[in-house]
């Protein structure tokens, strides 16, 4: 399965390289069926199919997941091959609807994805009925509120595989400046989420989180790897090597290293300030038994104060969806709108019109500020 979201034509080319339209099924996923980038990509793939197999092949090689069946049909997709979902499902909360279930089922089979849905459902139950002191999304949400609004730390990096999901769902939901009633917030809300899987971040942004800005971190690790590689002669298995870092990094952030410790290690005096770590940097760790569709169950939640709490099976994605809702409730914001993405989209419409007018009728660039006019003029000259 290949997935395509970015409208950059290079991404389209990369995705279709080596594919044969005759043996390819394209799933167009768009709630509204109007999103400019998604629909241009869809039209590009429609052209790719019909130029090789003829226009009648489109209905057989393209299916849709959407709430807008009228536009699906107008596009040329057979509405019988459209997978609907409820219009109240927001894009970023749609992984458990046909939006996620269809592509994931095509990749892994529905029996696997059913387990994923059951895992997510178990978290809904957990969120609904577990007392607050044992309620994982509530605890995570409260920690975020503490870090962001009380301690003033705006960002949170992830050491996990699903940081792009968290980045979307968290930043689009809670990146708000007014309350649900439209009153400007007297505090900062939302957080900057970014991350890298495994140890990648250690070789890039971890320098900043250890000795630069204070950034609360989430570490997500698993006990049993799907790849139990243990090379002869190595001190530990490859997974233990990965996990050694998982256990070490939160301690380094929490405890740091003092000048006294460095002096005892005979570190040259001029290097002591550079090798000192302040410590007292917050992080939390989630330890999962293994990665499978249902699980990603029975984690141990650990925070830097070394209190543990366990719970039965859950789905990580559902935990983070609920955590975002908890934060939104406490901050008093609407986590389910995203007006902030609109302005850029409407300005892009103006630019698109200008590019068309300039390229087809030679019209001068006008109506933009000096900087944009200069850039657009230069862009059109080349
Ligand atoms: O599913 P669509 O209607 O194409 O919307 C696609 C995207 O549109 C907007 O950017 C929303 O903010 C996203 O959350 C959504 O995923």
From TrEMBL:
UniProt keywords, alphabetically: Cytoplasm, Gluconeogenesis, Glycolysis, Isomerase
Pathway: Carbohydrate degradation; glycolysis; D-glyceraldehyde 3-phosphate and glycerone phosphate from D-glucose: step 2/4
CDD domains assigned to the protein according to its UniProt record, in alphabetical order: SIS_PGI_1 (cd05015), SIS_PGI_2 (cd05016)
Catalysed transformations (reactions): alpha-D-glucose 6-phosphate = beta-D-fructose 6-phosphate
Coiled coil: none
Main localisation: cytoplasm
EC number: 5.3.1.9
Listed name of the protein: Glucose-6-phosphate isomerase
Species whose genome carries this gene: Senna tora
